[in-house]
């Protein structure tokens, strides 16, 4: 699709906009000195358009070959809000707190390490990709472009499938957690209330439909929802930070000391204590600080300004709003999440067993009951449930944008893809893709009727997500090391290579970790089926690709005609050299 953004070596003649139409296909390699600087795509009329990147390196969506259909209304702070809302710190911590506590209070160190030495490098690498390819499908576009010629289509298709399944599983896990929080509130008021899989799925379906309906609002309303979500999540954190210690002291529950907080290690499995700690202390942050790719998928709705070369790249967020949405959300959740874990462990009381053996579906509920009493617990758990719903709305919005972009390139059969890749003219949102996403999530949600299947939803969201990201990042530091694209956000040659190398290593390690069973020698009830679901879905998708989808999916597919392209990115945008050819 795109190649190196360095066009400083062009002559003055080459910097004039020209259009050349020939009757035979154009061989890019024969273009003097420009073969690594061309952006190539098929126009809507079937011609091949090759474009040398603009000298100012500020890419427009049209330079990628796509028509601007979504309304640009998101600042970098709004995009930060999308990711921050999806992470929904306190609701997410409530969902993973049992696993974290299974490693002991010292698991907070695992959270800190994973956040800043694993997830943040991945976020920085993703920010570079999103900046170079400012499209909702940036992950797959970069994989297609970086891969060797003969593997471009299958490599990109694999990334499409993995990313889409991971995003859909993420939506499932969020709304599944929300349904659990709501039913926990019912348990507090009615101790004899029994939570069944059917009840959870019923609440899950209702919340999913509600999320899709809210996600279909216009951009101006959606941005308000994101801003509301930021303030709501922050207010919820502040409330717990203040109320929980006060309630703990008021009820004469002893605070745990520093030795307990930072040195306690528990083992609720038959793994060794070290193996148990690795499994249960490193994964909670990965499950919570996920969905940070959402600003990238919302990039086509971002408001940005040209890169100010007088400022350092880290001081110019308006030039790369999606990139900064990714980085800020990871940093904020990494720090605040660690502080929240420390607060919960300080106030949980000295007996870990008493908390782990609670009858509530969420063990955090037991901590709140001990320190705050029934009324305050119901109030806070209700707010957490609302936070979960806001998380889901943001998640389904980002997922639908990715789904829309992939349908635009016909990742699905044409009759279905062309139907779904339509933007509603009233709201300027991909409503059909929104409800297509909803249907996929409803089907995946059926896994909650099997306990290990429900747990696999979280794991698929992480494994599929990291597998999708790992492919373009690995290609970037290997095959495409000397030809990859540089967007407005770029860390520099040496630092970029180091960060991407760390990101790839961390992702490979985490992919393996999420597929390890929680116990040694598992039976059918304790087996981790993530490897089966993830690779099974990928195998089916690749079978379908080689069977019939290779006829339709040919990588990026422009929805612009040549005239629309020239009108969008002609002299005014300083495009250096343009030529097109027949098919």
Molecular structure report:
By secondary structure, the chain is mostly helical. The chain has 2 domains: 1-66 and 561-583, no CATH class; 70-557, Amino acid/polyamine transporter I (Up-down Bundle). It has helices at residues 76-87, 89-101, 107-132, 138-146, 152-189, 197-215, 219-250, 258-263, 273-288, 294-297, 321-347, 352-356, 363-408, 414-420, 431-444, 451-476, 493-514, 530-547, 562-568; strands spanning 21-22, 38-42, 48-52, 578-581. It has a 4-stranded mixed sheet with strand order 1-4-3-2, with no helix packed on it. It is globular. The two termini are 16 Å apart. The model is unreliable at 1-38, 54-58 and 572-576 (pLDDT under 50).
Provide the helix percentage. Answer: 55-70%
Following the backbone from N to C, one meets helices and strands in this order, namely: EEEHHHHHHHHHHHHHHHHHHHE
% residues in beta strands: under 5%
- For the record, the CATH architecture of the largest domain stands as Up-down Bundle
User: What is the total domain count?
Assistant: 2
Overall outline: globular
Give the tally of β-strands: 4
CATH topology of the largest domain: Amino acid/polyamine transporter I
Residue windows where pLDDT falls under 50 for at least 5 positions: 1-38, 54-58, 572-576
Counting DSSP H or I runs of 4 or more residues, the number of helices is 19
Note the main sheet: 4 strands, mixed
Features of the shown structure:
single chain, 583 residues, mainly alpha, Amino acid/polyamine transporter I, 2 domains, four-stranded mixed beta sheet, 4 strands, 60% helix, disordered N terminus, Amino acid transporter, transmembrane helix, transmembrane, AA/rel_permease1
């Amino acid at each position: 699709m795109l190649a190196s953004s360095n066009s400083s070596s062009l002559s003055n003649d080459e910097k004039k906009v020209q259009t050349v139409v020939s009757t035979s296909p154009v061989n890019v390699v024969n273009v003097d000195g420009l073969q690594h600087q061309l952006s190539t795509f098929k126009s809507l009329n079937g011609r091949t358009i090759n474009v040398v990147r603009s000298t100012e390196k500020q890419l427009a969506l049209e330079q990628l070959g796509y028509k601007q259909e979504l309304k640009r209304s998101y600042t970098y702070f709004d995009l930060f809000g999308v990711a921050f809302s999806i992470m929904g710190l306190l609701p997410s911590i409530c969902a993973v707190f049992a696993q974290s506590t299974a490693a002991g209070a010292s698991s907070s160190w695992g959270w800190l390490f994973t956040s800043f030495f694993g997830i943040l490098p991945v976020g920085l690498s993703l920010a570079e990709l999103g900046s170079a390819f400012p499209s909702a499908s940036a992950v797959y576009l970069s994989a297609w472009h970086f891969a060797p010629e003969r593997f471009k289509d299958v490599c990109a298709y694999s990334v499409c499938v993995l990313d889409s399944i991971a995003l859909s599983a993420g939506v499932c896990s969020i709304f599944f957690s929300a349904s659990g929080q709501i039913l926990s509130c019912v348990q507090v008021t009615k101790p004899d209330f029994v939570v069944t899989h059917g009840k959870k799925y019923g609440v899950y379906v209702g919340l999913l439909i509600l999320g899709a309906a809210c996600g279909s609002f216009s951009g101006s309303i959606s941005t308000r929802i994101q801003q509301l979500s930021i303030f709501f999540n922050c207010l919820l954190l502040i409330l717990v930070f203040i109320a929980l210690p006060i309630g703990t002291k008021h009820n004469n529950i002893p605070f745990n000391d520093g030795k307990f907080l930072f040195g306690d290690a528990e083992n609720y499995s038959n793994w060794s204590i070290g193996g148990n700690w690795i499994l249960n202390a490193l994964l909670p942050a990965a499950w919570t600080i996920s969905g940070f790719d959402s600003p990238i998928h919302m990039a086509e709705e971002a408001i940005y300004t040209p890169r100010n070369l007088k400022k350092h790249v880290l001081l110019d967020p308006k030039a790369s709003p999606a990139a900064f949405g990714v980085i800020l959300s990871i940093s904020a959740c990494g720090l605040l999440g660690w502080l929240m874990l420390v607060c919960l462990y300080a106030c949980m009381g000295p007996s870990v067993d008493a908390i782990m053996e609670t009858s509530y579906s969420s063990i955090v509920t037991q901590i709140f009951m001990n320190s705050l009493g029934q009324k305050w617990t119901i109030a806070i758990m209700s707010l957490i449930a609302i936070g979960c719903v806001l998380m889901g709305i943001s998640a389904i919005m980002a997922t639908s944008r990715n789904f829309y972009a992939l349908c635009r390139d016909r990742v699905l059969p044409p009759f279905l893809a062309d139907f779904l890749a339509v933007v509603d003219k009233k709201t300027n949102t991909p409503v059909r893709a929104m409800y297509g996403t909803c249907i996929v999530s409803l089907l995946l949600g059926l896994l909650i009727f099997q306990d290990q299947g429900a747990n696999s939803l979280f794991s698929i969201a992480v494994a599929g997500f990291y597998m999708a990201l790992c492919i373009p990042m690995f290609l970037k530091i290997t095959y495409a090391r000397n030809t990859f694209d540089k967007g407005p956000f770029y860390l520099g040659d040496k630092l970029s290579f180091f960060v991407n190398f760390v990101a790839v290593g961390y992702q490979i390690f985490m992919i393996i970790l999420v597929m390890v069973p929680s116990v040694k020698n598992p039976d059918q009830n304790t087996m981790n089926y993530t490897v089966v679901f993830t690779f099974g879905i990928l195998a089916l998708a690749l079978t379908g690709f080689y069977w019939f989808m290779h006829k339709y999916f040919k990588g990026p597919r422009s929805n612009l005609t040549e005239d629309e392209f020239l009108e969008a990115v002609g002299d005014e945008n300083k495009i250096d050299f343009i030529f097109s050819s027949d098919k």
